[in-house]
Design a protein that fits this description.
alpha/beta; six-stranded mixed beta sheet; four-stranded antiparallel beta sheet; 9 helices; 21% strand
Length: 274
């Protein structure tokens, strides 16, 4: 895979203008190519800020973010190929699902230069194959308003992967769905990752989701965001809903929950001392 999917944060601090405290402070981690990484933590701890730094939408206030072997903000730093999926699938309502999925092929090099020539052939087949893989065969000609929330999120994952990104950034893509649909999509996401192996960075508030999908879980504290626990997840794949009720799985979830509770208790004590 090379270093195209490497993500390294070296002593990163980031402050939004006029904010009273940094969003992130002294964050360090190194993510290996092809691994499924999860950022877990309370609201406001800087998880989405980390995604924006990886995507090159923000630059660190201090420290260095190195993505695909290049420092964010440096010349040529956007040469890595990224895929993005969010809590809201953000499909363009005037396009079919198939055309929505093919949008990255229209705007991302090297596909962009071949789009007109291949959009009705190779690129269409590529998008249709992805839709079939996530259970949406035959839905390519539908409009977004004709699909359920879970179906739209499946299509959103296809759009994020159609251009074969080195790095896939997922910002709570299952957070707005009901529990049953969310668990179905865990399996969909796991299958897509196993078959393609991009470096994944998933932001979530769901402990079970973290343990189900991750190769590695980075737990964050709030005010300002720091990594307080870095947990490897070694359960065999493919993981199943049945395996998520096994003692080792529930033990990991409980251990993560305790880490967060202890971090919150420390913050409360620090606040009382001030």
């Amino acid at each position: 895979i090379g270093n195209s999917g490497d993500i390294k944060f070296k002593n990163i601090t980031f402050s939004y203008p006029e904010a009273q405290a940094p969003a992130l402070e002294r964050v360090n981690f190194a993510l290996k190519p092809g691994h499924f990484n999860v950022l877990f933590g309370p609201s406001g701890c800087g998880k989405s800020t980390i995604l924006k730094l990886v995507a090159g939408l923000l630059e660190p206030t201090a420290g260095a973010a190195i993505v695909g072997g290049r420092e964010v903000g440096a010349i040529g730093s956007h040469a890595k190929r990224l895929g993005l999926a969010f809590q809201n699938p953000t499909m363009l309502p005037w396009l079919s699902i198939l055309d929505n999925v093919m949008i990255p092929l229209k705007i991302v090099e090297p596909f962009r230069q071949d789009y007109r020539r291949k959009r009705k052939g190779e690129f269409r087949e590529r998008a249709e194959a992805l839709l079939e893989q996530v259970g949406l065969a035959g839905f390519g000609n539908k409009r977004p308003w004709q699909l359920s929330g879970g179906m739209l999120q499946r299509a959103s994952l296809c759009r994020a992967l159609v251009h074969e990104p080195d790095i896939l950034l997922l910002d709570e893509p299952f957070g707005a769905l009901d529990q049953f649909t969310r668990e179905e999509l865990w399996d969909t996401m796991q299958d897509l990752w196993i078959n393609r192996r991009p470096t994944v960075l998933l932001v979530t508030h769901d402990l079970r989701e973290s343990a189900y999908l991750a190769s590695r879980i980075c737990v964050m504290s709030s005010r300002p965001g720091r990594i307080i626990e870095d947990q490897r997840v070694t359960f065999a794949r493919p993981r199943t809903l049945e395996s998520s009720y096994q003692p080792d799985f529930t033990s990991l979830v409980q251990s993560l929950r305790m880490s967060i509770a202890e971090a919150r208790a420390r913050l409360i004590q620090m606040d009382r001392r001030r």
